[in-house]
Amino acid sequence: MLDSVDSGGPERRSALIAHELACLNIDIAALSEVRLHEEGSLREHGAAYTLFWSGKPRTEKHLSGVSFMIKNSILSKLENLPTGHSDHIISLRLPLHNKQHVVLFSICAPTLQADPAEKDKFYTDLRLLTQKVPADDKIIILGDFNARVGKNFEAWKGVLGKHGVGNCNDNGRLLLEFCAEQQLTITNTIFQQKNSLKTTRMHPRSKHWHLIDYVLVRRRDVCDVHHTHMMPSAECQTDHQLVCCKLKLNLKFKPKRGSIPRRRLQVNSLQSATMRDRFQVNLQTRLENHSIDSLDPSPETLWHHIKNSILQSSEESLGFSFKKNKDWFDENNQEIQELLRKKGTAHQAHLALPSCHARKAAFCLACSSNRNFMTSKTSGGSI
Fold first, then answer.
1. 37 DSSP β-pair partners
2. Residue 297: CB partners within 8 Å, gap ≥ 6?
3. Cα separations (Å) of 97 from 94, 165, 247, 250?
4. Integer CA distances (angstroms), 183 to 11, 220, 225, in order
5. Among candidate residues 16, 36, 32, the one with its CA nearest the CA of residue 24
6. How far apart are CA 39 and CA 18, in angstroms?
7. Rounded CA separation 180/191 (Å)
8. Are 47 and 22 in contact (CB under 8 A)?
9. Cα torsion 221, 28, 246, 207: sign
């Protein structure tokens, strides 16, 4: 996401992902394997999203990690911020109308080759967290389960729909058993659509596409789900495809409290000799013309007199500054958009004919151009 020094990807990948989510009008995104330490947040002002993550301690390697990326328009009205439980689970509770709530979990399950004890711990932790959710609350679990659940819907009625993909593996059985126990449904399998709109990751060796990223909801709330499908147009520099789930939820936001905006003086203008002289004359005049009450020559009175004189002179001479949230990503937005458009076109052409070496080379060149552009901007260079 932010990318470590030894990462092969461009810096500020979070800005690219936020911009992609803004183009697709995604309200809340659950991201897996963000590989950031501990807990924290990062606001992307240009795309108007904020990233919240939960990862491993700083003493351990950059592995796993989960996060939510939330629209700032939604974030400013929430009652509580996301809560990190481990480097595999982070949760968020949203208020709904009629005194209901929906609890979202962003997860990253252990891989198929992981230690069985690690898998048991993950599902034990997730089970305890879901059991703590009030019975009236809705539950949505999103993320990379590293599991293939197959399409045997008759054996897993209520858990699987009629439109699954491929065969089930060991991790898939763990997921199916968890869903059956917690009365959850895998929404990816309940909609009839092409397999290309279901599968989310291509195996690096076999080159076969598999469904391993899921959206789970309570069985009684399946009617809230309008559609769950993969979005091939989303390009966020990852080997997983973005899964989009459209839900019918009426959020109830807390009323916004009125507050006085904080203003900042333009102190940088004091670098000008003319402005400096103007401020000094203004301040000296106020100090000389102000008559201090002789009946109360206390230090408090003297302090308030000096403080008010400085503030009034500063406001009159310097004025206030207006905060501008611009960084290199916002300033180069047009160039970035053109690079992303070319990369998206090359990516779709490569997917349409994977055996064509020319199309693959064009896609690799587009990726390299994007990476070089981001590196040059973040390192202070130019193209």
1. none
2. none
3. 10, 36, 15, 6
4. 41, 8, 16
5. 16
6. 19
7. 19
8. yes
9. negative
| Helix (H) or strand (E) segment spanning residue 53 | strand 49-54
Other C-beta atoms lying within 10 Å of the C-beta of residue 295:
6
Global model pTM greater than 0.85? no
- Judging by DSSP bridges, how do beta strands 138-144 and 101-108 pair with one another? parallel
* Burial (0-12, 13-18, 19+ Cβ within 10 Å), 291: exposed
Element at 138 (helix H, strand E)? strand 138-144
Task: For the chain, 383 residues long, give each residue's pLDDT as a single digit of tens.
Answer: 444 434 444 346 788 888 888 888 999 999 998 888 889 999 888 788 999 999 998 888 877 899 999 999 888 778 889 999 999 999 999 988 878 899 999 999 999 999 999 999 999 999 999 999 999 999 999 999 999 999 999 999 999 999 999 999 999 999 999 999 999 999 999 999 999 899 999 888 888 999 999 999 999 999 999 999 998 877 766 778 899 999 988 776 655 555 556 677 888 888 888 888 888 888 888 877 765 544 566 777 778 888 888 888 888 888 877 655 555 566 667 777 788 888 888 888 888 888 898 988 998 888 888 777 766 765 544 33
CA pair distance 283, 277, nearest whole angstrom: 10
Measured in whole angstroms, the distance separating CA 19 from the mean position of its chain's CA atoms is: 11
Q: Is 159 exposed, middle or buried (0-12, 13-18, 19+ CB in 10 A)?
A: buried
In what helix (H) or strand (E) does residue 44 lie, and over which residues does it extend?
A: strand 39-44
Q: What percent of the chain is helix, strand and coil (3-state, nearest 5)?
A: 40, 25, 40
What is the DSSP secondary-structure string of 319-365? -EE------HHHHTHHHHHHHHHHHHHHHHHHHH-TT-HHHHHHHHH
C-alpha span between 84 and 103 (Å, rounded):
13
Query: Residue 242: in which H helix or E strand, if any?
Result: strand 242-247
Q: Which amino acid is at 254?
A: K
Given a contact cutoff of 8 angstroms between Cβ atoms, the answer to whether 351 and 232 are in contact is yes
Question: Largest Cα–Cα distance of the chain, in whole Å?
Answer: 93
**Gyration radius of the chain's alpha carbons:** 27
Residue partners of 191: CB distance under 8 A and separation at least 6: 161, 163, 227, 228, 229
